[in-house]
Each structure stands twice: as C-alpha cells, then as structure tokens.
Amino acid sequence: MKYLATLYLICLIKVCVTVNFAHLCGYSLTADTFVECSTADAADCADLCDVTDTCIGFEYFEETGDCNLINAIRNVESNYTFCSFYMKTTTKQMTIQGRSLSTTDQMLQNLLYESQGTCPDGWRTASTKCTLKLSEEKCAEFASFLNASYSNGLCVIPLITLKPICPTDVTTWALKAYSDGYYCLKVIPRFAGSPAPLSYVDACQQACANIGGYFASIHSAAENSDMICMFFQHLTVSITDFTAINGGGSQGMAIGLISVTGQIVGNWSMSWYDNTTVTYKNWGGGPETTVADRPVFQLTIIMPDTFWHTNYLNFNAFFDTIACKQKARNVRVLGSV
Ligand SMILES: *[C@@H]1O[C@H](CO)[C@@H](O)[C@H](O)[C@H]1NC(C)=O
Ligand SMILES: *[C@@H]1O[C@H](CO)[C@@H](O)[C@H](O)[C@H]1NC(C)=O
Ligand SMILES: *[C@@H]1O[C@H](CO)[C@@H](O)[C@H](O)[C@H]1NC(C)=O
Ligand SMILES: *[C@@H]1O[C@H](CO)[C@@H](O)[C@H](O)[C@H]1NC(C)=O
Predict the structure, then answer these.
(1) Can you give the CATH number for the domain in which 197 is found?
(2) What ligand has the least distance to the C-alpha of 273?
C-alpha cells in the first residue's frame, strides 16, 4: 500500500505525477497488456507493476478492480473519456535537440529511452537505425514524433546520436576535436589597463569566465596551432617576419600557463590555470630564474614567433589578446552523425 499517499486519483484532463506512476486522466494509451488481474485499488495495481520486471504502466478500473499491466506503450493521446491509464515515470530526462514535445510526449520519450541509449529500450541497434520486429499495424501506432516507419518486416526508428556543441554562443566559439575530447576556443581582446587588484592571470581567467569559458590550456601541437591561427586573425599589425619574436608586430596572446608558486624554477615548474597537467610544451626563451629584474611570474604570452614566452620582457606592452577555452557539451540529435 506504499503508493496510497502518493497516488492522486482525482484528475480531469491532467497528468498527475506520483513517485513512480503518472495517472493520465483524460488520456488514452496505445499499449500492450501482458497481465490481467484484479486488485483492491490503484495503489495495489501500481505495486504489482512496480515489482514486475517488464511493466511500464497499467490500466486500472475503479468499478471492477481490474488491473491490466502494460509492457509496451506506443502513444499517449488526449481523450477525455479515459481516466484509467497510468504510465511509469522516470527522473531521467531524454532531450533531443530540435524536438520539442508536449508534457505527455516527453514522458513517453523519457520512458522509451529510459537507459538513455541510441535506441529505445528493447530495440535493436543497427549501424544507421533502430529496429524492432513488429507488425506493420502496430508500427503505425507509434506517436508521430518518434519517426517510426515500416520496412521489410521491421519497425524502424532513427538513431539518436551524441553531437558535441559549444555550450555558449555557438557562432563565435570554434569547436575543435583533440585526443582529450571536444573543446571550444575563442580569442578575445585583453582588458584595458592594469588588472589590479587582480593578478594578470586572474584577470584573464575573469575575462574568459565572463563569456562562459576559462583561461586556456594547450595540450597538443594541433591545439597550439589552432590557437595560433585564431591569435593571428586578431592581429591588427602586419607580420613581416614570423621567425622573429615580434614578427614585425608587437602583439601577444595570453595563455593559461602559470606558476602556482609565483616563482619560475625551470620550464617544468609551470602548470595550467585549469589544473590540467602540462603534457605538451612549446617554450620560447625562458622561463628564467636568473634575470634579476623579473623573477616573479606574471603572465605567459604567445608571440608571433608562435612560441610560449613566460615573463617576456615588458610583457604588458605586448599582451593584447586572451586565449579562452571551454569543454564542448554533448547534445542528442536525430540520425547518425
Ligand atoms: C476517444 O476514445 C473513444 C473510445 O475509444 C473514441 O471513440 C473517440 O473517437 C476518442 N476521441 C478522440 C478525440 O480521439
Ligand atoms: C521526423 O519527423 C518529422 C515530422 O514528423 C520530420 O520533420 C523530420 O524530418 C523527421 N526526421 C527524420 C530523421 O526522419
Ligand atoms: C625552457 O625551454 C626553452 C626552450 O626549450 C629554453 O630556451 C630555456 O632555456 C628553458 N628554460 C629553463 C629555465 O629551463
Ligand atoms: C585548480 O585548483 C585550485 C586549487 O585546488 C582551485 O582553487 C581552482 O579552483 C582550480 N581551478 C579550476 C579551473 O578547476
């Protein structure tokens, strides 16, 4: 009887969501019944469904006590003549990019894709589609949003695939694939003037955080090269000699390579602001511990010679842009990618 307190039975054309089941009063389900029995009340019927492995809903009739357990649901339709259906609810939300659903269709989608896979639970995953052996008639009963079609004795539904996207402002961040995952990169102008009371690195992190990212780390030659391309697009001076440190220009891009101690004792005393380990290096001259007038770490900049310069002499005059980064987010889309 544990559901008595949570099952709301007074409903009219509305969905009452309880802990385990939603009472779909005002809706009819297109579903398959696999067990028919009789229980004292709807809560008992819910109990029965809950302990039965394949049960995902039930139909309960107050007047007769008939309790029919359901193991397949193909559609939920608004129909005021029905107040007998209950559908299992799940806390796992299944969202598919570009598919906007009514409350009941969303509940159905959440339930059909409860294990959050590429196909509805129980369907076979083929390379480009999901299939289920089913009659043509039953295949036609699926809610239209599921895009089911019938072919060669099988009911077919498109695959759901994961697609990486930039979490914020997809048009200005560049989506890139690296061996450690998908990332979004963006180069922005530096802050004006002195960052005080913030340090240079904290001010760079702040500027990146303001646009939803963080002060960039670089972990491969490919990523370094992408960063440099974006940096060059921001240069407002023409570069006449890429091999020279200043490259004929006088601009540099800050990257999140820092010294947590504030001191630099050899190249490998450096770490990334985002706490990832230094796995790839592209040092320019320095970092140095021996130069008396700049022993304390301030900022690492990439100069037009494409190398990482830590504590570049008079760096503030050259520091012009900031490299920002964020981890790409996966969204689910319809179809194979
Ligand atoms: C509601 O269900 C009844 C009984 O199955 C059916 O006759 C009727 O056409 C349905 N109404 C709508 C609007 O679908
Ligand atoms: C799914 O169906 C909708 C309309 O029902 C259609 O617009 C869309 O193109 C279909 N998508 C696929 C992948 O079949
Ligand atoms: C760091 O690496 C660069 C380039 O390899 C080198 O020129 C520089 O001397 C190194 N600095 C230290 C302190 O090891
Ligand atoms: C990196 O680690 C430090 C110290 O544990 C922490 O304060 C900081 O928030 C971390 N930064 C990021 C970006 O996770």
Answers:
(1) 3.10.100.10
(2) 4
Residue 82 is predicted with a pLDDT of 95
- Residues contacting ligand 3 via CB (< 6 Å): 266-267, 283, 285-288
Q: CATH code at 104?
A: 3.50.4.10
Q: Name the residue of 275, 276, 327 whose CB sits within 8 Å of the most ligand 4 atoms, as the mutation to test its pocket.
A: 275
If asked whether residues 195 and 313 sit together in one domain, one would say yes
Residues contacting ligand 2 via CB (< 6 Å): 144, 147, 158, 334-335
Residue in 280, 309, 266, 262 with CA at minimum distance from that of residue 217 = 280
**Whose Cα sits closest to atom 4 in ligand 4?**
275
Contact status, residue 216 vs residue 323, Cβ threshold 8 Å:
yes
Residues of the chain with pLDDT under 70: 1-19, 237-249, 265-268, 285-295, 337
279-293: string of b/e by CB count within 10 Å (b at 16+)?
eeebebebbeeeeee
Residue 232 three-state SS:
helix
Residues 74 and 213 in one domain: no
CB 29 within 8 A of CB 71: no
Looking at all shown ligands, the one closest to residue 213's CA atom is 4
Is the shortest distance between the CB of 288 and ligand 4 below 6 Å?
no
Kindly compute the dihedral angle of the four CA atoms of residues 11, 70, 92, 18, in this order, to the nearest 10 degrees. 30
**pLDDT per residue as tens digits for the range 60-112:** 999 999 999 999 999 999 999 999 999 999 888 999 998 999 999 999 999 99
Q: What's the rounded Cα separation, in Å, for the pair 94 and 117?
A: 10
